[in-house]
Amino acid sequence: MDDQRPPAGVLRAFSATADPVRLSGGKGGTWRAGDLVLKPSEGDDETRWRAQILATLPESPHFRIARPVRAADGDWLADGWEAARAMAGHPDQRRVDEVVRTGSAFHETVAHLPRPAFLDTRSDPWAYGEKLAWDPRSRTGDDLLDDLLDARRPVHLPAQVIHGDLLGNVLFADGMPPAVIDWAPYWRPPAWASAVAVVDAMVWHGTGFEAALRWAHLPQWDQLLIRAAIFRLGTWQAAGWEKEPRQAYEPVVRDIVGYVRGAGKPLRGDGIMPA
Hints:
Layout: H1 8-13, E1 21-22, E2 31-33, E3 36-40, H2 44-56, E4 64-65, E5 81-85, E6 90-91, H3 96-109, H4 125-134, H5 143-150, E7 160-163, E8 170-172, E9 179-180, E10 185-188, H6 190-204, H7 210-213, H8 221-239, H9 246-261
Parallel strand pairs: 4-9
Antiparallel strand pairs: 1-2, 2-3, 3-5, 6-8, 7-10, 8-9
Helix pairs in contact: 3-6, 4-8, 6-8, 6-9, 8-9
């Protein structure tokens, strides 16, 4: 958890007058000050790219977005911090189908964007996990990950800019469309973002495999599930976080691999492939 609160100069730069309060979730470094949400930038080029797009993105009846706020000097950053308008609502990871539908609407809106150059210079654990999932030459020596890697087959789907971390970053509020926050951009097929959300729900929020089956009509869905699980496990491996997710992932990986090897046949309620 990042204990650094927004410095006084940052608060002044974004005209924040309320005392900042740390927000739960994420990486622990996000703060709310009145109607602003502030957090340290994790890449200046990415922050400015994202802010410029979100500032001008058309309103949609299907989702809300957190509009970025410029600093007093006109930049989207102040001393390494960025700011956006606070959005009403709370995440609900049990509503994975609504998250997937919201993500799909968001992806339709940003489908015209060209591939941003900063994706080529990322070197964080998430970039490692993504590369591991999609590089056909990748191997790890980890049995759980290599079971997934062995089940991969080529994917031939068009790529675009997507939001690769949807499940905890869609907020629900009564009487309003869902809000999309904390855009994590990747250049992949949009349905891969849906698969990541479904895998997250199954691993961490008790969602059954039937959630995966509900989206089986999406093209090459089984292979996108495989790559979603590799992405998440590979990120954990690269980050070296203390909490080992293996126990949480093992049953989900078993179900996904069984589903793929069964050529997309549905599982029984106990998670076992039919004979």
